[in-house]
Amino acid sequence: MDRAAIIGIGMTKVESRKLDKTFADMAFEAVRKALDDAGMTIADIDNVITTSNDFWDGRTISCMAVGDASGASDKNISCVEGDGTFGAFYGLARTLSGSYGTTLVTGHSKGSQSVSSLITNAAFDPIYNRTLGADMITACAMQSNAYMARTGTTPEQLARVSVKNHGNAMMNENAHLGMKLTVKDVLGSEMIADPLHRLDCSPVSDGCCAIIIADEKRAKKSKKKPVWIKGVGMCADAYFLGDRDLSRSESLVKAARTAYKMAGISDPGKEIDLAEVYDAFSYQELMWLEGLGICADADAGKQLEKGSFDIPGRLPVNASGGLMGGHAVIAAGLYRIAEVVRQIRGEAGAYQAKKADTGLAHGVNGLAGQSHCVWILGKDR
Amino acid sequence: MAEKEYIVIESGEAAQPFDYAVGMHGSKFFTELRDNKKLMGVRCPKCKMVYIPPRGVCGPCFEEMKDFVEVGPGGVIGTYTILRFAFIDPETGQQKPVPYGYGFIKLDGADTLFQHYIDIVDEKKIKVGARVEAVFADERKGTIRDILYFRVID
Ligand SMILES: [Zn+2]
């Protein structure tokens, strides 16, 4: 495969409610930051991919409404509906096609402007499921019970994910929900849907993230050392939740295998230095780490308790605070990529991992992790 | 200094009504449910998996499915949750009274799980693997709410 790299990242601060900003304002801010980061101007961008969701944005063809603010005037612009990592996957494919030397990818969402349970309820099948009123939290609570029943993972282990990630978020200036918590605090917080307490759930936030992908020739001209894309994989599970074994994530296993094969990784638990995974709910961090093969099935909770995933641990997971620290839906996976880029460049400040040569970023879209996208990024070409 | 004023535009009562066609498989499912209190699944001719709700294609085999089979009305809880936080009910636009049970039921004779409410009159009995049966509405209209809920019968 031809090589491609990430040469610029731009993140707005993730906030609970950006009353002072429109979607376009957020996009403009993130894109300008990414251009500054890459030492480029908008004239250096060959094409643009925006990522958004029409229901969350409350308008049809939502992605096109941010074209101007994303610098797409006179350029080829296309859109992806899904997580930001899916938009980046498309952006990578465009770059590798040889038609574009650089691709700007953005992802945005404002959870504050709508009723999130109605938006995620609308993801259910309108004929058989939707009118029963389930939403993302209901689906994920059921997945959590299925996962815990099968693996023996405990509510305390779930709570520890929340404690770790909310704690890490205190060091990240882009997060809005950094908190010093104890396991007791999490288990004592209001039960939303068994077994998920309020503090087992990430918030629904506002934010936009932008990255710039370049082919090898253009990457060599970038201001900072490029972060190389070593492998990517993407896979989706069945749509009806009842068709799936909710306690496992087959599609994540397949997406990860594809990415590892491309990156030449045979033992992910040893060869990956840090990971940013989609912790929309506490149990998901553990379940995804097992699906990613970073630890053995049913072992993530125990590894977490040993401190393996803390910043000083064997393999820091969500050192940035992850989604627990701020969850701009759609943009969230792109933030994970940008955070891994920061780590590999050594720019993560107070939450910098000791060793960060190879990092994994993970994005999710669909109910209870229907589809997954896995990125392996590296310091060396 | 004057306090900042943030201006927002409200969408108000805006709504987007849809009429969703249920297809041939949905028609079979909802008429059997309404007229005979029967739950119909459909079997894949190749892998023999029985799907509920019924649909036209087996995804893994990419084969057409037309072989309807009755499943349930008994089964076991595959997984569940108890909702304790009031969400807005999309049917009514009002907050649904909490708590209530929700789950995936492995109906007898089916290979996939069926999503519906679970009666939580005795919360201690709500477990993965607990035996349940469907409770049907007296007046049925051909919607998923013709099943009221599943109740534990252990
Ligand atoms: Zn089949």
In short:
With 381 residues, chain A is of the alpha/beta class. Chain A has helices spanning 23-38, 54-57, 84-96, 116-121, 136-151, 155-169, 183-188, 216-219, 250-263, 268-271, 282-291, 300-305, 332-345, and strands at residues 4-11, 47-51, 76-80, 102-110, 191-193, 196-197, 206-215, 227-236, 274-276, 358-365, 371-378.
Give the SSE map.
The complex is a heterodimer of chains A (381) and B (154).
Chain A: E1 4-11, H1 23-38, E2 47-51, H2 54-57, E3 76-80, H3 84-96, E4 102-110, H4 116-121, H5 136-151, H6 155-169, H7 183-188, E5 191-193, E6 196-197, E7 206-215, H8 216-219, E8 227-236, H9 250-263, H10 268-271, E9 274-276, H11 282-291, H12 300-305, H13 332-345, E10 358-365, E11 371-378
Parallel strand pairs in A: 2-3, 2-4, 9-10
Antiparallel strand pairs in A: 1-7, 1-8, 4-7, 5-6, 8-11, 10-11
Helix pairs in contact in A: 3-13, 6-11
Chain B: H1 23-36, E1 39-43, E2 50-51, E3 57-58, E4 63-64, E5 67-71, E6 74-83, E7 100-107, E8 114-118, E9 131-136, E10 147-152
Antiparallel strand pairs in B: 1-2, 1-5, 3-4, 6-7, 6-9, 7-8, 9-10
The complex binds zinc ion (ZN).
Describe the 3D structure:
The complex is a heterodimer of chains A (381) and B (154). By secondary structure, chain A is an alpha/beta fold. Chain A has helices spanning 23-38, 54-57, 84-96, 116-121, 136-151, 155-169, 183-188, 216-219, 250-263, 268-271, 282-291, 300-305, 332-345, and strands spanning 4-11, 47-51, 76-80, 102-110, 191-193, 196-197, 206-215, 227-236, 274-276, 358-365, 371-378. Chain A has a domain at 4-115 and 204-219: 3-Layer(aba) Sandwich (Peroxisomal Thiolase, Chain A, domain 1). Helix content of chain A is 34%, strand content 19%. In chain A, helix 3 packs across helix 13 (332-345). The model of chain A has no long low-confidence stretch (mean pLDDT 97). Chain B has one domain. By secondary structure, chain B is mainly beta. Chain B has a five-stranded antiparallel β-sheet, with no helix packed on it. A three-stranded antiparallel β-sheet of chain B has the order 2-1-5, with helices on one face. Chain B has one helix at residues 23-36; strands at 39-43, 50-51, 57-58, 63-64, 67-71, 74-83, 100-107, 114-118, 131-136, 147-152. The longest helix of chain B has 14 residues, at 23-36. Chain B is built from one helix and ten strands, in the order αββββββββββ. At the A-B interface, helix 4, helix 5 and strand 5 of A face strand 6, strand 7 and strand 8 of B. Residues 44, 46-47, 49, 58, 60-61, 63 of chain B line the site of zinc ion (ZN).
